[in-house]
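User: Hi! I'm working on a homework problem where we have to compare a predicted structure to a textbook description. Could you give me the structure for the chain below?
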Amino acid sequence: MARWWGKKRTSGDTGAVPAGPGPSAEAAGGTLPGQVDGPGGPRAVLLRVLDDGVVLTGDDGGGGPTSLAPRTYPWAEITHLWFANDLEGHSTEDDTVVTQWVYDQRLEFADGTVVASRLSDPPVTTPGAVFRTGQIADRPPSVVWPLMARIHAHVTEVQLARAEATLAAGGRVEFGSLAVDADGLYHQETHIPWEDVTELRYSFVHASVDEDELGAYLRLEFHDREAGTYGFPFRWLRIPALDVPDVEVLERLAARRRG
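Assistant: Happy to help. Predicted structure tokens:
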């Protein structure tokens, strides 16, 4: 969730595509640092992004390899993907606001390995008077996000084909607390027919008068059939993005089926 100190919040929704300046040289070279959890605790790794998949290697923190043998995973062997972006910030004594984009990503592979990465772009400074209007200083294009987006694009295509095949065969596909089948979405005891879905998207709100609205979420709006003549005709679900695996697959499935 975005964090601010000593400044008035303004409203803004960045949508699904974060932006920011370039990160470390590792990310710029097509490699993302991360970690895996194991019996001995967290372990630093490097994830090299190739055209046909990724290569996972150990990282001792000093630039040399560890005893972890390189493992190659084709795109089809990435079984789940979680992603969320954030914008952290704080005020300074000279009435400027320092902001920094942060990117969280988790990849689960077919052998059970999970690689988590939390990367950030360099901070940028915005004059307080400008920030209070809801604007943030211009930033060079991010290098972290395009590399992650490259992974997302390949993985989503593979997973989408699998999901479509499952639905066509009469099965159900789960996305955390949500599930979908040929008839619609399911959340706990609620069934939402596809034709009732008015909006389903990942979005990130970086500043809001309402503290609860800050952060990266899957936002689902749907027609409320039980509202009655005088009831409000829509309902909403707002689920933290990191609680919804493969959110881009879910977005694509919904976009193809919404009435």
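For your comparison, note the following. Confidence is low (pLDDT under 50) at residues 1-25. Residues 97 and 131 are 7 Å apart (CA to CA). Good luck with the assignment!
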